[in-house]
Every structure is written in structure tokens, then in C-alpha cells.
Amino acid sequence: MRWAQIVAMSAFACMLFAIEWPRLARLPRRDKAAFVILLVVGWVLSLMDLRNLPGPTTFINAIFKPLGQYLE
Fold first, then answer.
1. Is residue 39 exposed (0-12), middle (13-18) or buried (19+ Cβ within 10 Å)?
2. Which residues contact 6 (CB under 8 A, 6 or more apart)?
3. Under a CB-based contact definition with an 8 Å cutoff, are residues 30 and 71 in contact?
4. pLDDT of residue 1
5. DSSP letter string over 20-57?
6. Could you give the 3-state DSSP secondary structure of residue 53?
């Protein structure tokens, strides 16, 4: 299942690039760079399993739990 997701997201990113790049041909280099950067960031985030990643409260608890034990 994981490989199917990687292949599908890569195919969608390539299709989006192929469709949008001719429209960006007359725009400045800065706009093209922004498009490519946002596309790559979106592609990388789509490959991560964000639903199962621990949230920021887990990180804060890991840092401050030992400190709380000392203060008690």
C-alpha cells in the first residue's frame, strides 16, 4: 500500500507539473521557482504519514516531564 501511495503521489505531481509549466513559461523566474518549491514541499508532505505522527504536546511532555518530577 505504501508503494502505491508513493507512485500515485509522484504521478500526480508530475501531471500537475506538466499541465502548469507551459502556463508559467511567460512568467518571471521567481514565480517558476515558487511553483517548483511549493510543488516539492506538497509532494514530500503527501508522502509522510502525518496522521500517525506524534503532536507537539508529546514533544513538550517529553521535555518537561523530568523537570516536573524534580519540582514535586
1. middle
2. 47
3. no
4. 56
5. HTGGGTTS-HHHHHHHHHHHHHHHHHHHS-GGGS--HH
6. coil
